[in-house]
Write a structure and sequence with these properties.
Helix 7 packs across helix 9. The chain is mainly α.
């Protein structure tokens, strides 16, 4: 029974990275015992096929170009990645301000025409906040003069 369980786990991992908690929920069924499932996951972890650290870095590579640290951290925590792995992955990622400037530039391209255009500034602020960028990062992006490229 454990060989079939291991085979299912390896097939799932062959498609994409999974966290331990995610894989556990996908493989759990009334037939398997929790001890058997835990043993298979321990074996996969020790052989290097299952790694929350690798999942976190893979997830950040895929999504960091569009989202801020708060959203990325929330997504990783929701998938069961430990807090110290979340912190390490975000530290290794590109600076949040640089990513925010790139996202803002792609979406808006220019500062509001008038410095007093509160509606447009609020719209840009809401956009960046919804992407998970911090308030301080948003202030820096919206204060910065447009870069000449």
């Amino acid at each position: 029974m454990s060989d079939a369980l291991r085979e299912r786990a390896v097939r799932l991992l062959a498609r994409r990275e999974h966290t331990r908690r995610e894989l556990m929920s996908k493989l759990a069924s009334p037939v398997e015992s929790p001890q058997e499932l835990s043993a298979v996951l321990d074996d996969l972890s020790s052989s290097g096929l299952l790694s929350d650290e690798r999942y976190a870095s893979s997830r950040l590579r895929a999504r960091a170009t569009r989202f801020g640290d708060a959203r990325l951290a929330h997504e990783l925590r929701a998938k069961g990645v430990a807090e110290e792995l979340v912190t390490a992955a975000l530290t290794a990622a590109e600076d949040e301000l640089t990513r925010a400037q790139r996202v803002w530039q792609r979406r808006f391209g220019q500062q509001p025409a008038s410095p007093d255009d509160a509606a447009e500034r609020a719209r840009q602020t809401r956009f960046l906040a919804a992407r998970g960028f911090s308030a301080e990062t948003i202030r820096c992006v919206l204060r910065a003069p447009p870069e000449d490229e």
